[in-house]
Amino acid sequence: MEETITQKGSSNRMKFIVGGALIVAAVIYLIVSSTQASAQYFLTIDEVVAKGDQVLDRDLRISGAVLGDTIAYDRESLSLSFKVAHVPGDNDEIEAEGGLAEALHAAATDPSRSRLQIIYEGPMPDLLQDEAQAIMTGRLGDDGIFYADELLLKCPTKYEEAVPEQVEVQQ
Questions:
Q1: Closest alpha carbon to 86 in 101, 103, 68, 69
Q2: CA distance 88 to 98
Q3: Burial degree of 108 (CB within 10 A; 0-12, 13-18, 19+)
Q4: Based on the domain organization, do 62 and 20 belong to the same domain?
Q5: Same-domain pairing of 34 and 52
Q6: pLDDT tens digit sequence for 89-142
Q7: What DSSP designation does 56 have?
Q8: Among residues 57, 59, 84, 133, which one has the fewest Cβ atoms lying within 10 Å of its Cβ?
Q9: H-type helices in the chain, by residue range?
Q10: Residue span of the structural domain in which 72 resides
Q11: How far, in Å, CA of 31 to CA of 22, rounded?
């Protein structure tokens, strides 16, 4: 009789351990799969151009300098189109160029830098101007155009006030 009770106890304990392991495995799977599904890759324009097909249909966040002469906006359809030029993604490289305002200016005026066409549907932001820093979230299309869902702009004049010596160099 004692053997039967001991066997039932170890059988119940084994069921508990297996059940607990399955629950832990399911929780780990859900965490990993949701993290991968919502992951965004932050890339520079050079990296997007270089990777091409590898980044199609992936959520991306990119940053670049707005090329003012490429801005086209249709008020009827709220369709905004413009190009951005490569700005380094590393803060040390940006500082080596003289700060963010200088890096944005260099990117917008250097025709050898990589460029990417952007299309955004929505109202035209007030800060959209030449040499503004654009940070966009969206996807790269098969046609090589980046379709932005979100658009954040930083005006270069904001950085001139923070670093007066850069203003003197530009003038």
A1: 103
A2: 12
A3: buried
A4: no
A5: no
A6: 888 888 888 888 888 988 999 999 999 999 999 999 888 888 899 999 999 998
A7: B
A8: 57
A9: 2-37, 45-51, 91-96, 100-109, 156-162, 164-170
A10: 41-170
A11: 14
